[in-house]
Amino acid sequence: MIRTDWVSLIVLGSCLCLSSTALAKNPHPLKRKVSILYISNFSSQYYWNNIIKKQIMKHFDSLEIPLDFYEEVLDVRRKDPRSRDAIFSILKKLYKEKYRNIKIDLIISSDDSIVGSLGRKLFPDVPFLFCYARNDLKKNLIDMGNASATIDHRNPETIIDIGIKLHPNIKHICIVSDYSEVSIFFSNQIQNIEKFYPQRKFVYIRTDNINELVDKLRQLDNNTFIIDTSYYSSPFEEFSHRKTKSIVFETTQLPVYSLWSNPVGNGVVAGMDLDPFKHGSTAARLAVQIIQQGSADNVPPVFVPEERVYFDYEMLTLFSIPEDILPPTAVVINKPLSFFEKYRATLALIFVVVVFFSIIITMLIVALRQKKREKKVLTMEIDVKNKEAEAREKLQQAKKMEALGTFSLGIAHDLNGVLGSISTCSRLAQQEISSESRAYEDLHQIDISIQRAIDLIRKISKKGNIYTKAPLPLKKAMDESMHVLNSQIPKTVEFNYENNIGDAKVLLDPGEIHQIVQNLCVNAVQAMDGHGRLSVCVHEDCKLKEIVISVTDTGKGIPGDHVERIFDPYFTTKKDKGGKGLGLFIVHNIIDSISGKITVKNSMNAGTCFQLYIPIAE
């Protein structure tokens, strides 16, 4: 029993090995290298041939089928039928020798002229696949054997219906053809279906002679449209397929239609599309099936539907045919490009440039806003620091003022006693002399000045907190101050005083007025070094309700960097002459206390003018 099992296993293993060997020698047809011979009509570079070849190679490449591709050009349509047999006998010997050691798996031909016995003479045992064959050649394919094809399914009835739709009032239809097989085939088809158009009269012109064609075209009625079925001229005439189309239109100036799309754009209104892409892709699929089966007998021909019809925009315009009545599958060529289509590249470039600069501008705006934010933050920081510095400066100023106040209180206390004694002595002296004497007047002025000094000391002592001012007539107070000041001005200084105010009153006391005049005039005299002109002018500005006091000198002026500091306490340029830096500070404080204003007009080496604006008291 065990021995039998071992024998069975050995036999089974041997069978598997033999099966593997057999499979290795006979791989799947789609995985082995195949050889295809392509036979071109007209030229290997003909547009139709190029598209067909590309579609086949593309399909085989997508299936990863290794392919050896060979090509021959027969161009049977150009050959005289009487010499074809002799030529094919020579070609048969040539191809037999040329492909002796090459196993051709399939012949693909774009020339349906060799359907039947002609093709079999060249390659008796090889499967044929015709990439385009007329519908009337199906019987020839069957008789040929081992052959298949993509069948042209175009129907002339389609182009007739289009012509009637676009020209409903036309009564005649002319069919132009030559003696080529395909042209005769389509002309015969139209003859078979003309009975379905009883309201139209069909006229047929068949010729290979240009002059004859032109003569017959000139005889056509204007109420006619033409269907040109000619495909290729006779070898004995010198007019080409495309040239024929031009002759038909140029001779008649009538609407011309074609069963092909390639003449469209050369005097043809519309033509049916024979699409090489559809035929090529269909042929590629059929080729794989034929190679798989090793024969074309069980691969039936396939009809390739043609749906598109090409129209020439220039012809549509010439015959006033609107595009909206064209069939849905219509393709209009030679249509003028729209502005966007015409300048697409330029517009695209402009768009890219605009987008680029928009991005740059956006980035710049963002950066600018960021800079503004940073600047704002920096400004705030600077403002904070400035305010801190200002606060420190005010604190320093407050400390100075506090020290000054304390110092002033001490001095005021001492001076009060001294001035009181002087005042008592002055009054006693007045009692001892005659009121008519000059000395009596001087003692009286001394007593007035002492009283002003006592009032001033009293204000300093009380710090002005409880001192209430009463409106004072300014004219009299100014005159008295000028009278006292006049004796202090050197004779070498020209002094001019002008007081043009009436009864205007201000909230100042005589002592403050004297301080203002005293400090400004003494400073002016010092600025002129005792030589020059000092002018004091007092006038009333009724519009602003202010008294304006102007003190002008012809001195050296104030240096530019000192102007902003002249009202600071203890700031002086005359320390060597005993200056304390308090005169202008006191003047500024007095004017500021009554909401007045003081300005300085300064010219180096030309003098200085102080102007005081004192509000008039109600």
TrEMBL record:
Coiled-coil annotated residue ranges, if any: 368-404
GTP-binding is among the record's keywords: no
SUPFAM superfamilies associated with the record: ATPase domain of HSP90 chaperone/DNA topoisomerase II/histidine kinase (SSF55874), Homodimeric domain of signal transducing histidine kinase (SSF47384)
Histidine kinase domain location: 410-618
Signal sequence, renumbered to the chain: 1-24
Keyword annotations from UniProtKB, A to Z: ATP-binding, Coiled coil, Kinase, Membrane, Nucleotide-binding, Phosphoprotein, Signal, Transferase, Transmembrane, Transmembrane helix, Two-component regulatory system
SMART domains, per database record: HATPase_c (SM00387)
Top-level division of the source organism's lineage: Bacteria
Substrates-to-products reaction catalysed: ATP + protein L-histidine = ADP + protein N-phospho-L-histidine
Residue stretches spanning the membrane: 345-368
EC annotation from Swiss-Prot or TrEMBL: 2.7.13.3
PROSITE patterns: HIS_KIN
GO molecular function, one term: ATP binding
InterPro entries tied to this protein: HATPase_C_sf, HATPase_dom, His_kinase_dom, HisK_dim/P_dom, HisK_dim/P_sf, Sig_transdc_His_kin-like_C
Top class in the EC scheme: transferase
PANTHER family documented for this protein: C4-DICARBOXYLATE TRANSPORT SENSOR PROTEIN DCTB (PTHR43065:SF46), SENSOR HISTIDINE KINASE (PTHR43065)
Protein name: histidine kinase
Organism taxonomic ancestry: Bacteria, Pseudomonadati, Thermodesulfobacteriota, Desulfovibrionia, Desulfovibrionales
